[in-house]
Amino acid sequence: MQSLRFPVPIQNALTPSNPRFSRNQTPRRIRSHSRLSNSLSLHCATATDAVVHREESREQFNDRFAPCVHFPPEDEPLPAGLRRELMPRHVAVIMDGNVRWERRRGLPAGSGHEAGAQSLRGLVELCCKWGIRVLTVFAFSFDNWSRPKVEVEFLLDLFEKMISSEIDDFASEGIRISIIGDSSKLPNPLPKLISDAEERTKDNSRLQLIVAVSYSGKYDVVQACKSISQKVKDGVVEVDDINESLVEQELETNCTEFPYPDLLIRTSGELRVSNFLLWQLAYTELFFASALWPDFGKSEFVEALVSFQQRQRRYGGRDP
After folding, report:
1. Whole-structure pTM over 0.90, yes or no?
2. Which residue among 73, 204, 208, 233 is buried most deeply as judged by most CB within 10 Å?
3. How far is the C-alpha of 272 from the C-alpha of 288, rounded, in Å?
4. CATH class of residue range 37-46+75-309
C-alpha cells in the first residue's frame, strides 16, 4: 500500500462542527434529493479538541450520538496503533478502481461495481464500530454522465437495487442516509426511492452516510452562489453580509453537523480530488491508497487512520 505521508508529531485537532446544524434538520430536497447511500457502490483525519470544542460540548455531542445496539463503538477493540480519541469525525472517500478491478480479472462488465458495493458495506460497518460520525462517499460524479450509456444505466440500476436491498438494515442499524448532488438528470423511480429512504432514516444518529450522486464540487459552489444571489435580489441578504459562513450554509453539506471531512481517502493510486467537495476539503488530510476500491478493506482503512492520527493539523497557524 502506498500513501502520501508526512513525518509530523502525533498531535491532532478535528475540524469544527457546523453551529447552524440541527440534528433534526433534514437536507434540502429540491437541489439534492437524499439518495440512499447504497448507490455508494456505484463507484464506486484528536488529541486535543481544544480551539474547536470544549470538553463539555464534547460530552453533549456524545450524548446526542448514543451508540446503536448493533454497532456500539466498544463492540470491537480498535486495531493496534489506533487511539479512539484521535479518530476522525468525518471521513470522505473517493471510491475509484472498480472497472480496472474487473478488467484485470477478466470478469464481466459491472462485476467491479458490484464488488465495490461490498467494500462500501464493510466500510460502513467499521465506521459504526469505531465511532466515526460521518462517512461521505463519491458514488457518481456529474462528469460521469459522459461515460458510455450502458455503464451509466447499469450504475443507476445498481443504485436503485441497493436502495431497496439495504434500507432495512441501514434503518435498523441507526444509519442516516443523505444524498447530495444535482438530481435533475436522475430517472424515475430514483427520486422517490431516495426521498423515501432519507425520510425513513432522518432521525437516526449512529452514523450519517452521505452519498454524492451526480455531484461535483464546482456545481456545489455555483449553486450556493446562485442561492445567495437570489437572496440578495429578494432583499433577504445584503451584499456586505456575504462571507465564508454564509457560503458554507448554502453548500449541500449543510445536511450534517460536521460538513468538513477530517480525512479524505482515495483508492486506486490516483493522486487527485477529481472535483469532489472542493470547498469542504480546504484543511482535510489526504491519504492515497494504491488498492483498487473492491480490494479496500479493514487493513487498508486502518493504515489510512493510523496515518491520519500521526499528523499535526495547524489550520494555517503555528505550534505554541
Report:
1. no
2. 208
3. 9
4. alpha beta
